[in-house]
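Input.
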Amino acid sequence: SDSVSCCVPQELFINFSSTERLKPINLTSVVTMRYVLVTGGVVSGLGKGVTASSIGVLLQAAGLRVTAIKIDPYINTDAGTMSPFEHGEVFVLDDGGEVDLDLGNYERFLDVRLTKDNNLTTGKIYQTVIEHERKGDYLGKTVQVVPHITDAIQDWIERVAHIPVDGRDAIPDVCVIELGGTVGDIESMPFIEALRQFQFRVGPQNMCVIHVSLVPVLGVVGEQKTKPTQHSVQALRSSGLAPNLLACRSTEPLEDSVKQKLGLFCHVSPEHILTMHDVSNIWHVPLILKDQGAAKVILNHFGYGQRDIPLEPWEVRANKWDTLKRRVKIGMVGKYTGLTDSYISVIKSLEHASIAASHRLEVIWIEASGLEEDTKTKDPAKYNESWANMKLCDGILVPGGFGDRGVEGKIMAAKYCRENGIPYLGICLGMQVVVIEYARNVLGMSEANSAEFDPATPQPVVVFMPEGSTTHLGGTMRLGSRRTVLQTTDCVSAKLYQVEQYIDERHRHRYEVNPEMVDKFEEAGLQFVGKDESGTRMEIVELKGHKYFVATQYHPEFKSRPGKPSPLFLGLILASTGQLDTHMQNKIDPPDSPNRKGSSGSFSKAAGSPSGSPLKP
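Output.
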């Protein structure tokens, strides 16, 4: 028998062919995994990821361990080579996985650490099946979509669902699966078929289907229209999946008559139809799902019975955000400002920090190219508007990016903040432009540049990492969680992280500060207060004497959580609102505090000792 097809871990199987006497197994210890499948219809972008994450929050609040899987039907192996304009941000995991931005939603809502296998794509499945075929695992068989591809999908889901993700060894109780795209898409058909089969593999009582659909209001008529959802559910049911719950996106709560009509034509009880109407902030979503009894329906379906669903922290956060009066204006100087999803983790990190600092965030989007001297000639109106927006900001953030478009504008932003005492946080490329700007305007290296933008530059202050690939772009960067060893405790970063030795954060880059020029920078006042364990790769740079001028090679936004903001984002907001000095004076731990050794990116998970060089005082 196959352990995967029976939902039982391999170690719990009895080998009846063995002559050795076996000890009896306590079958009550076998964990029955439950699955919540979230599908979507009518149009994409309805908020399936937020819905899936919010369902996970309710189940966690009920005392269950929750994991999540995102299925993306595209043929790409992962999201690493996709344009942010087309697919939004590439989220990076601890293990180096470059995944869909929805996994960022799962991690932020559920406070878990997922793996690259939690993002399943058509590319991964076909690659796996073809590798098995080449090894001869299907010898004599004709390899087909059914059963080989569909079996591989089911095996993948079942294997990953049993991986602990909450820092404990226990297997999760529930796996939330989000199927990307919309029902009826050609590329998602193998996954729909696999999931249809999967409900019988695990048992219908262990799988709950939630269908997210749209109930639009036509401007002329002013009536909530149910027909798109009716057709969407019809397509889902014709594929062999019947929804247990309908989550209907709309601008306003659904009218009772609309619920009755949907229940009649979609074969779903009106009590199981959820209104997912527009709310003032994303933290209200778990609350409105709870108020409509979503958790009750799912728990009853799985046989858990009724449980308390305490969501006090979510209520406090959602209501606090709505009542904040004081504003903080942060300028986002980027090249993908046309699609805010390109920077979704950065925006969420700013929100986490702003609410912790009791200020309402106002992001001012600034297209980096608009700050450049060329724009002053070609489009004076855009140039003037861009610089006028810069001067409105309390603080500036320059996020990561690739390619040379807008780089000179980012360099100008770093210069403006350095010379005018404006709080600045640079991430990845945002750190590299700091180095370029400092070399040009402080060290007098007029031709200083990055080898990424000018391979022939005579003064390369940013260079290609020697271990990188020049022929393959997918999955070849320096990725995932890496250790940064602090070089001194007398720096803003150490005080914000409240650690003395090291920081673990996630990376995604293939260029680095030229190690041969570090001494010149430090002699001129630019301090590299964080380096990798070898001491040759620069991780954190600060400008001493500045109100707040910090830049990192790593991406601190990927570990920020509601209620546990990233320390460096919190530092930017506090500096921008005049609260930084007071905060750091109040948050210093005693010398023997266990939190003082190292941090994994949040205050609550600091532990361990570094293998890097000892600190200088």
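Confidence is low (pLDDT under 50) at residues 1-29, 589-595, 602-617.
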